[in-house]
Amino acid sequence: MGSMQSLFGKKFFDYMIVVFTGGDELEDNDETLEDYLGRECPKPLKEILELCDNRCVPFDNKTKDAAMRTEQVGKKWAAKLRDQQVEVDSLKGYSKREISELKEQMQKSYEDQLKRATEMVESRLEQRLAEEQTARLKAEEAAQLAQGKSNDEICKLRKDLESAQRETAELREEYENSWCAIL
Questions:
Q1: Which of 25, 131, 165, 174 is 20 to 30 A distant from 182 in Cα terms?
Q2: Which intervals hold domain AIG1-type G (predicted)?
Q3: What is the pTM of this model?
């Protein structure tokens, strides 16, 4: 809600109307929108309705009756707006130039907010990428260190094996030589 207000300005909720589709289901159950909202209205929706002074209308989106559609779009909404005393023609006192300037300001505000949001997302992505790259480099470093230790261990084992093989060969030779001397 705060983002809508910051995007469109402080008076955003002064001109907002909440449209509820499925009005035909209310009629089928002999229920009004007020009954339904009083019974099953979630808290976030209640907050939005309060911000726009409970301006809401049910809309029967399944009706095939053209007169009913016209009534919904025209009379119902206009009556609701009149009943709520909402100023429909809020830009009456503005010149075309002022309206154009307001539109430009809104567009610039939207673009600025979009740019900030994009920069924030990009910044977070870059930060995550840097963190992941750092973690990957640490993992590679640890793997290289482990590989180096493993290679050192293999070299040591080879040397030990060669030394053991030499000693075995020397002992055999010594044994063979001593056997020959006894005969």
A1: 165
A2: 3-75
A3: 0.38
